[in-house]
Design a protein that fits this description.
single chain, alpha+beta, five-stranded antiparallel beta sheet, 16 helices, binds lactic acid, binds zinc ion
Length: about 475
């Protein structure tokens, strides 16, 4: 139902006419994020400060208008797709780095600051904020916090959740609260700042964040090693930990991902069943010693080619090939990727066994599945490729998703280690979390009794992933 004129005028009154868009083009564009889902909002509103956010939420609360908060829209699970219509609250205007306090080890930012931009601001101080998601050049800090984003450096430095010290949050009735403190330790009651991290915009709107910052490593180096089997690669990873090495990144790619990158970009990667890439950072001498030790471990575990790199250009090439996996898989084998079962978390030692199962599941269901990701944390992205116009392929994808997930659950895993639940993973999330879902529902009810904040997500998303996906709407064979 479109917004009534009075609500639209009220929103324009708060943020100014130029910061409300209700034309068809804006509404269509803001109906998507980086997931497979789409739903058109009634209007897009761009606040410039906390007070405006508070007044907007107050208005939505009074008029029962659904409100979906959005950063850069890079979420992969539909978190920013306004499935119940209403308004999309786009936070990109609130984009100031408010302070960098090296002596207190924190910085304070508005939610629309871009991850890469924050790190550019920290660089002259010799510091950084490490969680490095693949979309780091464009994604916002607010979005990262709302989804507890992470990436290749999490294995050493922690995910967003570990690096948030405090938040300013606007609650569903427009109240503004401060959580956390300005020190590094905090044993004062419930840690509400952590509650909002990963809440996907369902509990409140983040308007300011205090983030723990970390000294930039003095140097880093990487190696890339090819393996004749996933098991051999897994064996090397186990030995890295048994030998008390602390990589700053530890990534894996399976055969399909290697081939996809080679075909799409011509990158000179070795032909192998699996590649692992290890990064060490710190003092140069230690980096060199640790890399050498990691290389010996890989060799003993059965690695073929091992390529060391401390030279920045070569390091960049290695990591670029890792970055190219997602775009390369977009067209591998004439099929397209869908974001289902693509962000699995499991104990590190279970990775080879689970990834091998993906191959069997792919064969059984006539699909292509590629696996890659943050093996050092047991976080694997399984890319299921299908013909998105084929109803048969969607059904096969659904079966494959269930089978993949069964393998992951058996391994003691989780449905999302870094991409969040949103719509895409809601069904499996509910199955996985069992009775604790009810506790989450109660928290949601307590903080958002009218259910206006990002409704239709996590606990409330539909069971059927097909019903919410943009390709299926009358376009399938
Ligand atoms: C990656 C993103 C997709 O690791 O999480 O490439
Ligand atoms: Zn990832």
């Amino acid at each position: 139902m479109p917004l009534n004129e009075a609500v639209l005028a009220g929103l324009e009154n708060i943020v100014g006419k130029g910061n409300v868009a209700a034309d068809a083009a804006a509404r269509y564009v803001y109906g998507s994020d980086a997931s497979i889902h789409h739903h058109t909002p009634d209007a897009v509103v761009r606040p410039g400060c906390t007070d405006e956010v508070s007044r907007i939420v107050g208005l939505c609360d009074k008029e029962l208008v659904p409100l979906t908060t959005r950063g850069a829209g890079t979420g992969l699970s539909g978190q920013a797709v306004p499935v119940k219509g209403g308004i999309v609250l786009e936070m990109m205007r609130m984009n100031r780095v408010l302070s960098v306090r090296v002596e207190d080890l924190y910085c304070e930012v508005e939610p629309g600051v871009v991850f890469a931009g924050l790190n550019r601001a920290l660089e002259p101080h010799g510091y950084w904020w490490p969680p490095a998601p693949g979309s780091g050049d464009v994604c916002t800090i607010g979005g990262m916090i709302a989804n507890s984003a992470s990436g290749i450096r999490t294995v050493k430095y922690g995910a967003t959740r570990d690096l948030v010290l405090g938040l300013e949050v606007v609650l569903a009735d427009g109240t503004v609260i401060e959580t956390g403190n300005r020190g590094l330790k905090n044993a004062s009651g419930y840690q509400l700042e952590k509650l909002f991290v990963g809440s996907e915009g369902t509990l409140g709107i983040i308007t300011k964040a205090r983030l723990r910052i970390v000294p930039r490593p003095k140097s880093s180096g990487s190696l890339i090693a090819s393996f004749p089997s996933l098991e051999a690669a897994g064996g090397a990873i186990s030995q890295v930990y048994r030998n008390r090495l602390v990589p700053s990144a530890l990534e894996i790619m399976d055969r399909n991902c290697i081939q996809a990158v080679k075909r799409k970009f011509g990158t000179p990667l070795p032909d192998a069943e699996a590649l692992i890439i290890i990064e060490m950072d710190g003092d140069r001498r230690v980096v060199e010693e640790d890399l050498k030790a990691a290389g010996e471990i890989c060799r003993a575990a059965g690695a073929g080619d091992i390529d060391y790199a401390t030279d920045p250009a070569k390091v960049a090439m290695i990591w670029e090939s890792r970055k190219q996996v997602l775009p390369s898989m977009a067209s591998f084998g004439g099929k397209g990727p869908i974001s289902v079962a693509d962000d699995l978390g499991m104990p590190v030692s279970k990775v080879p066994e689970v990834v091998r199962t993906f191959g069997e599941i792919a064969r059984r269901n006539g699909l292509i599945i590629g696996a890659y990701g943050h093996a050092g944390e047991g976080n694997i992205h399984g890319k299921v490729l299908i013909d998105v116009k084929s109803a048969r392929d969607w059904e096969a994808a659904r079966r494959a998703t269930d089978e993949i997930y069964e393998a992951v659950l058996k391994a003691g895993g989780t449905v999302s280690a870094e991409h969040g639940i949103g719509i895409t993973r809601a069904r499996l999330f509910r199955l996985e979390r069992g009775a604790s879902i009810e506790v989450m529902r109660r928290i949601k009810k307590a903080l958002d009794p009218k259910g206006i904040l990002n409704p239709g997500k996590m606990f409330d998303a539909p069971d059927d992933m097909l019903s919410e996906n943009r390709y299926i709407l009358g376009e399938c064979d």
